[in-house]
Write a structure and sequence with these properties.
Rossmann fold, alpha/beta, 8-stranded mixed β-sheet, 14 strands
Length: 384
């Protein structure tokens, strides 16, 4: 298949991310390995397999509407002159620009469902909509969801850990939760390593107020992975974010996870194997104690099977092929899509140059000569 991914202009698409972009990068890597032709529309500093195309050579200012529209317009304009079987996207704005390609579009909902989003997605009934969990799927009442596909990461990128720090890892930036969980850990004789992207002033304050607490940033990825490998368990005292891969990273390292039952965590954690689910917050201490006693090797092996990007790619591959079969049966697609595989061809692209964007700008620059569609193309090949 010839598959295109329209990713975000605000974040690099890379397996090191904890965001939706990590899923896109892993999907691209696995699908290239399976022999599909893959093109990714992302930032110029992204690290992806296949061919990388970009409107901006580095991430644009977060939330800048015009940057999003320019990025999406660049991608969809290019796609209309390309031979593509399937387009995957996850930014809602993408659907508004898909046009006649909407029937070839698979959209994954990587944002929390709202009534407004439900109504918006329902307008694009010709697209294939995918949820990221059964619980997220259940929040839609108007949108037709094709299926739920759980997250997946590369197991080989997450080395096994032994919990050598003796501490519990916690993901939150809420000081009250840090204090509460820190107090839970004290009777268990363990410290607390907090993963939180917070200003240095707050980090120093937390470290000073809670002597058994250490605060680490969630990036860069090697530091985050080290904290997770050395932790005896990872605790979520708040709802688990279904779009965050932190819980998967922990289990792939053999570190059990702990959360309160009744959230999306129920789909991530296998009690007694990859972690424990507490019936309520008051029961978290006993759940933490139980998780610390679990077999880390068994936890890791289960996670490697359930949460691998190999499984992720297989799930999406089936959705892509099913969509193409529907189009083929209706006469809207060629019958030879299953043979459209093999290595990417090298050559010069026929699109415009990427435009530089300064991440410190509040507004993006107006169009310049660099926007001339007859300009030479700026392409970038992934090192993988």
């Amino acid at each position: 298949m010839r598959i295109a991914f329209v990713s975000s202009p605000f974040f690099d698409t890379s397996s090191d991310s904890r965001r939706a972009e990590a899923q896109v990068a892993e999907l691209a890597r696995q699908l290239v390995a399976r022999g599909h032709e893959v093109t990714v529309y992302a930032t110029g500093t992204s690290n992806v397999s296949g061919r990388l195309r970009y409107r901006f050579d580095r991430p644009a200012p977060m939330g800048h509407l015009l940057a999003m529209l320019r990025h999406q317009n660049f991608a969809w304009t290019d796609l209309r002159t390309s031979e593509v079987d399937i387009v995957h996207c996850h930014e809602p704005a993408a659907l508004a620009l898909a046009g006649e390609l909407i029937e070839r579009t698979v959209f994954t909902v990587f944002t929390s469902p709202t009534g407004e989003l439900d109504e918006y997605l329902a307008d694009y009934e010709d697209a294939t909509i995918v949820a990221t969990s059964e619980s997220e799927w259940s929040k839609f009442s108007k949108t037709t969801i094709a299926t739920a596909i759980l997250a997946g990461l590369d197991p080989e990128a997450h080395a096994a850990g032994r919990g050598g720090s003796g501490n519990i890892a916690l993901f939150t930036r809420n000081p009250a939760i840090i204090e509460r969980v820190g107090a839970m850990c004290a009777p268990l004789g363990v410290g607390l390593d907090v993963l939180a992207d917070v200003p240095d002033s707050l980090k120093n304050d937390l470290n000073a107020r809670f002597p058994n607490v250490r605060v680490f940033a969630t990036s860069p990825a090697p530091l985050r992975s080290e904290v997770l490998r050395y932790a005896r368990a990872l605790v979520f005292a708040e709802d688990v974010n279904p779009f965050d891969t932190l819980i998967v990273e922990a289990m792939l390292a053999g570190t059990p996870a702990v959360a309160v039952r009744g959230s999306v965590a129920d789909e991530f954690i296998e009690p007694g194997l990859t972690g424990e689910l507490a019936p309520d917050h008051a029961s978290l201490p006993s759940a933490i104690e139980g998780a610390m006693a679990l077999d880390r090797t068994a936890c890791r092996e289960h996670a490697r099977n359930r949460w691998s990007s190999f499984r992720l790619a297989g799930d999406y591959e089936r959705i892509f092929l099913a969509r193409l079969k529907v189009l083929s049966d209706s006469g809207d697609a060629s019958d030879d899509f299953s043979d459209a595989s093999g290595p990417l061809r090298s050559g010069v692209d026929d699109t415009r140059e990427s435009a530089r964007v300064d991440a410190t700008l509040v507004e993006l620059p107006d169009a310049t000569d660099d926007d001339d569609p007859t300009s030479p193309v700026d392409t970038k090949q992934s090192p993988h």
